[in-house]
Amino acid sequence: MSSSDPKTRPKPGPWPPAPDAAPVPPSSWAKRTGFRPKFSGETNASDSGQIALPPRARENENQTDLEAGRARPVPPLANGEPPVNEKGPAEKDQMVKKRREADGANKGSSGAGANGHTGTNGAAETGTAPQAQQPRRRPSRNEEVVDVLPQNVDDEGFVGRHSHMKYELRDTPGLVPIGLYGFQHYLSMLGSLILIPSVIVPAMGGTYEDTGNVVSTVLFVSGVTTLLHSFFGSRLPLIQGPSFVYLAPALAIINSPEFQGLNGNNFKHIMKELQGAIIIASAFQAILGYSGLMSLFLRLINPVVVAPTIAAVGLSFYSYGFPLVGTCLEIGTMQILLVIIFSLYLRKISVLGHRIFLIYAVPLGLGITWAVAFLLTEAGAYSYKGCDANIPTSNTISEHCRKHVPRMKLCRVDTSHALKSSPWFRFPYPLQWGTPVFHWKMALVMCVVSIIASVDSVGSYHASALLVASRPPTPGVVSRGIGLEGLSSVLAGLWGTGTGSTSLTENVHTIAVTKMGSRRAVELGACVLIVLSLIGKVGGFIASIPEVMVAALLCFMWAMLAALGLSNLRYSEAGSSRNIIIVGLSLFFSLSIPAYFQQYGISPNSNLSVPSYFQPYIVASHGPFRSKYGGVNYIMNTLLSLHMVIAFLVAVILDNTVPGSREERGVYVWSESEAARREPAIVKDYELPFRVGRIFRWVKWVGL
To answer: Is residue 461 within 8 Å of residue 234, measured between CB atoms?
Structure first.
C-alpha cells in the first residue's frame, strides 16, 4: 500500500474490506458459562445459523487428550482468522450434517441465527446479527476420542459431543442396535437399580423373600416411570429409579423410636409408614414442578450448590460401607478390587468396539466374586462343626457357634432361600403391603429430601443435555421434568419401593461411557425392565446376593456418586478462592454437624439395639433438640443429621450471598423460551409427543 499523502494523491481503490481487529478472547470459564462481553467482534456466525464464539486469537487452544496424557495440537491462527478448511464443507462429519438437515438449519439459518448464541452451558441467547459465514475448524482426529463429560467448546459454541457420541437424542438406528445398546445401558447401571432394596428391607426386618418382592417392584416402577419421563418429562435419556438421596432419610424413619419395640411383621408396618411419607413428599415435588416454582428456584441452583450437595450424598454412607465389608474381608475386598481393576486399569480394552470392562465393571465384578464365594462355600471354608447359619444367634447355646454364625450368614452364598421360594410369575400391584400410614413429621422430612432430589436432577438434566441434545432445556422443560418426577415418586409410594423415584445421578457417567444418547434405547430398555419385573425368579436371584457383596458394591457406587457430584464444578471457575471456600465449608460442615447430632447423648459404653453401621440413623431418639413438642424434635434432629441437607443449606446460602460474577459462579445457562420455540432442533428435542404440547401450550412455565 502506498505511503503518500492522501491529500495530494487520489485514493486508490476499491479495496476489499479490511478484516476486523481480533477481539480479546474470552477465557475458558467465560465460554463455559455462555458469557458475552460487551465489546464488539466477540461473535461470529456458524454454518448452522447459530451465533457462536470465535477461536482464540492470541494463543492456541489445544484440546487435551486425557487418555493419552498429551494435548492435541490445533493449527495456529493467522491474524486472528481461523484456518481455511482444505477439504471444504462437503467433508464435514456425516452425523452432524444429517442432524442439521433434519432440523432444517440450512433453511432457517437467518431466522435462528439471531437468537442462537450458545455457551458451554449451552443456552440459546439473543445476540447481535450474524456476520459473514466462516468455515468451521475441526480438531485433529488422530487421537482416540475419550469418554469425558462435556467441558470444552468448539468454534461454533457447541460442546464437543457430536464427534464421540454414537447415537444422539433423536437417533433411531434400528431395533437390533437399540436393543443391544439399551440392554448395555441398563446393565451398566445395575447397581443403582437393585442395591437399595438389599439395604432397607433387612433393616425393616424383612425376609429374603420380601427383598425379592421389593426388587421386582423397583424394576416395574423404574420401567414405568422411565417411559413416562422419556415421553412427558424432560424427554432426555435418563433412567428413573430409587435414588440414594432417599436412602438416608428412609433409614432414619426405619430406625425411629416408635418402631424399635414392634412385634410381628415389622416389615409391612414400617413400609406403610414409608409409603405415606413418600406420597406426601412426592405430591409436594409435583406441585413444585408443575406450578412453575421450580423455574424460580433454578436461580438459586448453580454448580457450586449442586457439587457439594450430591457429593455429600455419597460421602454420608461411610459408616455403612467398609464396616460391613470387614465382616467378611476376603470376599468384600475382592469385590472392591475387581471393580476398581475393571473400571480403571482395564478401561481401555475394547472387544468388538465396546469397552466391556469399563461398561460392565459392576456386573463382571459381582459375577466373579459370587463364583469365588460359591466355591469357598462348597469347599467348607465357612462351615463350622455343630453350627447352623439358619438358627438365630439368640437361640444358639454354644459360644463357639455364637462367634461364627454371623460370619457364616455374611460369607456363605446358600443362606438365602429367596430364589427357591420366589414364584415364577408375580405382578407388582399398588398397595401390595397395605394402606399407607401418614404421619406429618415423617412427611415433612421427606418433603425437604424431595428438594434435594430436585437439585440432583437439575444437575443431571444439564450435564446429559450437553452430551446428547442440541441445546440444554428451557427452565419450563426442567420444571416439567421435576413435576413428572414428583408424580413418578407418587407411583413409587403407591407400589411400595421404599424410596422415591428420580433421575439417577449415574446416568451422566453411563451416557459418557456407553456413548448411547438415544432415548429410544432407554425406552426399549424400560420395557424390558417391566417384563423382567413380572418374573419372580429375577427378584429372588437378586435378593440372593450376599450382604457383604452388596456393601462392597455400594462402596464403589457411593464413591462414584461423590465424584459425579464434584464434577459439576467444571462449569464454574474451579480455581476461584470464593468457590473453593464455599465448597470446602459445605463438605466439612456436612460431615461435622451431622456427627454432632449423631453422637449427642450416646456414651461410649452404651448398649445400642442396632448395628454400629445403623447408629447414625437413630438420632431422633437422642438428638440435642429436646423441646416440649416431640414432632418438632423429631424433624429437627433428623434433618440436621442428614449430610446432604447441611451441605445444601451451607452451599445455597453462601453461593447466593457471597459476591461473585456469573462467570465465576458458573451459573447454569438454560435455553431461552422465545429463542427455543423458533429453533427446530430444540423443539424436536423437548416438545411433548402426540401433539400433547399443543393442548398445553398456554402453560408457558412447564414447556418450551
So the answer is: yes
N- to C-terminal Cα distance for the chain? Answer: 54
**Over the stretch 82-116, which tens digit does the pLDDT of each residue have?**
444 444 444 444 554 444 454 444 444 444 333 44
Query: With helix as H, strand as E and coil as C, how does 159-176 read?
Result: ECCCCCCCECCCCCCCHH
Q: In whole angstroms, give the CA distance from residue 501 to residue 221.
A: 8
Degrees to nearest 5, angle at CA 159 with 302 and 67: 100
pLDDT in tens, 428-448: 999 999 899 999 999 999 999
Q: Report the pLDDT averaged over residues 269-294.
A: 93
CA neighbours closer than 13 Å in the CB half-sphere of residue 130: 22
CA angle 469, 362, 513 (to 5 degrees): 25
Establish if 673 belongs to a structural domain.
no
Task: Output phi, psi for 306, to 5 deg.
Answer: -65, -40
Residue 380, domain member (yes or no) = yes
Q: Using the predicted structure, report yes or no on whether residue 410 has a pLDDT greater than 90.
A: no
Contact present, 261 and 521 (Cβ < 8 Å):
no
Strand partners, 7: none
pLDDT in tens, 472-506: 899 989 999 999 999 999 999 999 999 999 998 88
Helix (H, G, I), strand (E, B) or coil at 128: coil
Distances (CA, A) of 70 to 56, 144, 411: 20, 12, 45
Measured CA to CA, the distance from residue 530 to residue 521 in angstroms comes to 14
C-alpha 456/C-alpha 648 separation (Å) is 11
Q: How far apart are the C-alpha atoms of 15 and 18, rounded to whole Å?
A: 8
- Going 305 to 309 to 311 to 315, the CA torsion angle's sign is positive
Contact predicate 686/677, CB 8 Å: no
Residues 593 and 347: their CA atoms lie apart, in Å, by 38
Q: How wide is the angle at C-alpha 323 spanned by C-alphas 586 and 381, nearest 5°? A: 155
How many domains does the structure of the chain reveal?
1
Residues found in the chain: 704
- Contact in structure between 118 and 125 (CB atoms under 8 Å): yes
- The pLDDT tens digits of the residues spanning 30-39 come to 455 554 444 4
Q: Give φ, ψ of 479 to 5 degrees.
A: -60, -40
Element spanning 44, H or E: strand 44-45
CA 179 – CA 175 distance, rounded (Å): 6
Is the residue at 4 inside a domain?
no
- Is residue 26 within 8 Å of 35, Cβ to Cβ? yes
Contacts of 317 (CB under 8 A, 6+ apart): 244, 247, 248, 554, 558
If one counts every other C-beta atom within 10 angstroms of the C-beta of residue 685, the result is 27
Count Cβ neighbours within 10 Å for each residue of 353-390 and write b for 16 or more, e otherwise: ebbebbbbbbbbbbeebbebbeebbeeeebebeebebe
Set of cell numbers at residue 8: 495530494
Query: Positive or negative CA dihedral for 647, 649, 654, 655?
Result: positive
Which among 245, 243, 230, 258 has a CA at the least distance from the CA of 439?
258
Cross-strand partners of 340 = none
Write down the H helix ranges in 567-672: 577-599, 630-639, 643-657, 662-665
Asked whether the CA dihedral 444, 447, 451, 453 is positive or negative, the reply is positive
β-bridge mates for residue 212, sequence order = none
Residue 580 in any domain: the answer is: yes
Q: Which segments of 469-546 does DSSP mark as H helices, in order?
A: 475-495, 507-514, 519-533, 536-543
CA distances (Å), origin 65, targets 68, 567, 572: 6, 18, 21
Please give the residue range of the domain that contains residue 637. Answer: 175-668
Q: Tell me the mean pLDDT in the region 458-466.
A: 90
